[in-house]
Automatic annotation (TrEMBL):
Residues 50-69 bind DNA. This is TetR family transcriptional regulator. Residues 27-87 form the HTH tetR-type domain. Residues 1-29 are annotated as: Disordered. Keywords: DNA-binding, Transcription, Transcription regulation. Pfam families: TetR_C_14 (PF17754), TetR_N (PF00440). Signal peptide: none annotated. GO terms for molecular function: DNA-binding transcription factor activity; transcription cis-regulatory region binding. InterPro entries: Homeodomain-like_sf, HTH-type_TetR-like_transc_reg, HTH_TetR, MftR_C.
């Protein structure tokens, strides 16, 4: 039998294996909590659903819920899409203009999201645009996303992430995303989100012609 050593590879250490297993278990727990929360929100409404009910449905304690999601709002508004998008931006070829790179990154990032997860995203977006407490939290998250986007753009261009040009570009991208998400919800997802984003980014890339 060929061993990893003979192939020139070092087998993972026991500590790495334990850490990887722990991270996978944490990811499963986080996903289960969010899925059960969304199911309960769909069945009985956001306001009527308590953290205790979510924890019971996910078979965890309320304290465990709060280790993964600091508030009930976070179980709707938190996701892993920012790192996915930023990774896609950084993967674009060097020399590609910033808006072109961001537009391509949106296409590739959202293409990797499976249909069931997109359905969940549509439901979370609907909640975020209709529940007042969630709308406020969503605005906070958008500012965090704008800062992260500015950081990625600045790193690619060798610019200051707090510079006015970089901040204006990041703000413009987030600005076109708001009506895109609103339109997606209004159409109940009948128009794919990646298509809506690509159309809006195309207008922005062309200088917003009317």
């Amino acid at each position: 039998m060929t061993t990893p050593q003979r192939l020139g590879r070092t087998p993972p250490s026991p500590e790495h294996a334990v850490t990887s297993l722990r991270e996978r278990k944490k990811a499963r727990t986080r996903r289960t909590i969010q899925e059960e929360a969304l199911r309960l929100f769909s069945e009985q409404g956001y306001e009527a659903t308590t953290v205790e009910q979510i924890a019971e449905a996910a078979e965890v304690s309320p304290s465990t819920f709060f280790r993964y999601f600091p508030t009930k709002e976070d179980v709707v508004t938190q996701d892993d899409y920012d790192p996915l998008l930023l990774s896609a931006i950084m993967a674009q070829p060097a020399g590609v203009p910033p808006l072109t790179a961001i537009r391509a990154a949106f296409r590739s990032a959202f293409a990797s999201i499976p249909p069931r997860e997109m359905d969940q995203l549509l439901f979370r977006t609907r909640l975020s645009t209709t529940v007042p407490a969630l709308r406020a939290r969503t605005v906070d998250n958008l500012f965090s996303t704008m800062d992260a986007l500015a950081g990625a753009v600045a790193e690619r261009a060798g610019r200051d992430p707090r510079g006015p040009a970089v901040q204006a570009l990041a703000g413009a991208v987030l600005g076109v995303m708001l009506p895109v998400l609103s339109t997606w919800v209004e159409r109940d997802g009948t128009t794919p989100l990646p298509d809506l984003i690509d159309e809006a980014m195309g207008y922005l890339e062309a200088g917003l012609p009317l």
